[in-house]
Design a protein that fits this description.
Shape: elongated
Structural class: alpha+beta
Strand content: 15-25%
Largest sheet: 7 strands, mixed
Number of strands: 16
Length: 577
């Protein structure tokens, strides 16, 4: 049937197979089909073009489901010109065409469907039809969005049953139990954060794109090697002050259950007031900083000048107040409007030299990296999104456990590399000892004061990063101290191994426990219904940001009236001169 031609006597397993074959032939050969008769024992069809003589008739064989072609009349005289759209190319037909592709690639887009159908069959179908087919195909493979919410309580029970110590709770609102919030933190993640990770938590959210939308809120940290470590995540109907307050409350409860005292945590976020207020109320004593990656992206969108972005990064990483002010002065010189814009974000929330908490060199969160885990799964029902995260966590934990077994160093590789480089530089320094703990370290360019008792250096790198700088290393070696004993415990290989020491247990497939849910369904069973808000019809507007555009030096406009940058003469607000 690859050439889509029929012969009299040709047999098909059943009537459905024959109908599909005729439909495929009509689409592939570009003629419209008119069905004269179609039931369980016979099928008669002809070409829909009025004067075209082509006609086919098939019947069911006795005592078998097999269908056979009895007659095939005429050849097409219609020209076979059904190319722009095709009545037989229904949504169901498109679903059948794309199903395997969708299984392999969730992000199979409607425009790709249009391209593949045109390439294979030479016909053009409407975009909306391709979009509907994808929606229906996803539902056939992964289940409906409504089913996802209905099964949430049972799914949370499975998480807690298979992975004791995990937190998995769903919250509803209203008398009809509409979905409101979902919080999940696996026991292995909680244990790993409390016992091995840096005390830094990135907060952020990403919009889901399934039928009922919603936002995935997440909390991530860093392991000893600087890698992404997802701590907890939640799904809310809408991102607002109330839901962030709730999310951090649940996070605090989860940590409280697994440690006697929650250490001071530094939170990184996009700087929204609702997150800052929630951190202040639910984690008093902790610090809150603006993610530098987010701040620089905002600056780039606002002023389209890569030079400003570079200067902002340099100012943020300055370890002295003088160095910081020099970079700010350069920003003022390049674009005064950008300097004014930056004043809306106090340096104590993003600059290393002014920040009061400990960030161990991490000025940006890794939320975007975590969001990439589920980026392609955002269109799936809520349970499938969670399963994607869990599956990724299982593989990452196992892979990192295996990797750490090959290490023979005291520190994690990235920290070990820093110490090795510091030792190489320290070998060229001259050390003058003042007393038991204080040293003056002389290099070709400068002189620095090191105090190994307070673990500080006048260059401030030791205090800011938690790893001895080259000056500190020189002082420690000269006083015959073990350099590794002065590195923060968070950077050791032992901490890394402890971070991933707990197993992530597999969650049984939906088929295994869905039957139990259906069997136990009664009037007392808690049924979670989807939120009332649904995704509006049509294609959403997209804001496309070209990375190349951000990296390229932008032309700075100049006003000939007031001699300022950032606007033209025609838009100048200065008084007429």
């Amino acid at each position: 049937m690859e050439d889509h031609n029929f012969v009299v006597g040709q047999e098909f397993p059943d009537v459905k197979a024959f109908r599909n074959a005729v439909k495929e032939a009509a689409i592939a050969q570009h003629f419209e089909l008119k069905i004269v008769k179609s039931d369980l024992i016979r099928y008669i069809a002809k070409c829909a073009t009025e004067d075209c003589p082509w006609r086919i008739r098939a019947v069911k064989l006795p005592n078998a489901p097999t269908f056979t072609i009895r007659s095939l009349e005429g050849i097409h005289t219609c020209g076979k010109n059904a190319q722009t759209g095709h009545h037989q190319a229904s949504v169901d037909w498109i679903v059948n065409f794309i199903e395997e592709r969708l299984r392999d690639n969730i992000n199979y887009k409607p425009k790709d469907i249009l391209h593949d159908i045109y390439k294979q069959y030479g016909i053009t179908i409407p975009y909306k039809q391709a979009w509907r087919a994808k929606e229906r195909g996803l539902q056939a493979i992964y289940g409906s969005s409504e089913e996802g919410y209905y099964l949430l309580p049972a799914f949370c029970d499975q998480i807690k049953k298979t992975d004791p110590g995990s937190v998995a709770e769903v919250f509803t609102t209203g008398a009809d139990n509409r979905f409101h919030q979902l919080f999940i933190s696996f026991h292995a993640s909680i244990y790993g954060f409390v016992n091995g990770c840096l005390p830094i938590v990135g907060l952020g959210g990403i919009q889901l794109k399934n039928k009922y939308l919603g936002t995935l809120l997440s909390a991530t940290s860093f392991d000893a090697d600087g890698g992404l470590f997802p701590l907890a995540f939640g799904v809310v109907d809408v991102e607002n002050d109330e839901n962030w307050m709730w999310f951090l409350l649940e996070l605090h409860k989860a940590l409280e259950m697994n440690t006697e005292r929650i250490s001071e945590i530094t939170f990184l976020s996009n700087g929204e007031k609702c997150i800052a207020e929630a951190v202040k109320r639910k984690f008093p004593g902790s610090s809150h900083a603006i993610c530098l990656h987010h701040l620089t992206e905002s600056l780039a969108r606002e002023f389209r000048n890569s030079r400003l972005v570079q200067l902002l990064w340099k100012s943020a990483y300055s370890t002295t107040i003088l160095g910081f002010k020099e970079k700010l002065a350069e920003i003022q010189e390049v674009c005064p409007e950008a300097a004014n814009w930056l004043q809306e974000h106090p340096p104590c929330h993003w600059a290393l030299v002014y920040f009061e908490g400990k960030r161990y060199g991490h000025l940006s969160s890794n939320i975007d990296e975590f969001n990439q885990w589920i980026f392609e799964a955002r269109e799936l029902p809520i349970i499938q999104v969670i399963e994607r995260i869990h599956s990724k966590l299982m593989s990452e934990f196992e892979e990192r456990r295996a990797k750490s077994r090959t290490w023979f160093s005291i520190l994690a590789p990235s920290a070990e590399k820093q110490i090795m480089e510091a030792m190489a530089r320290a070998s060229t320094y001259k050390v003058l000892r003042s007393d038991e703990v204080e040293f003056e370290v002389l290099s070709a360019e400068r002189s620095d004061i090191v105090n190994i008792g307070t673990r500080s250096c006048s260059c401030r790198d030791w205090q800011l990063y938690g790893i001895p700088c080259s000056h500190a290393v020189a002082a420690l070696i000269s006083s015959r101290n073990d350099v590794y004993a002065f590195v923060e415990k968070y950077f050791t290989a032992e901490s890394y191994r402890e971070t991933y020491s707990r197993q992530m247990h597999p969650i049984p497939g939906k088929i295994e426990w869905k039957k139990e849910v259906d069997a136990q369904a009664d009037e007392d069973t808690r049924v979670v219904r989807p939120p009332k808000f649904r995704r509006p019809p049509g294609r959403p507007e997209k804001k496309r940001i070209c990375i190349e555009e951000l990296n390229r030096e932008k032309h700075t406009v100049h006003c000939s009236r007031c001699n300022q940058t950032g606007h033209y003469k025609t838009t100048c607000r200065a008084e007429n001169m």
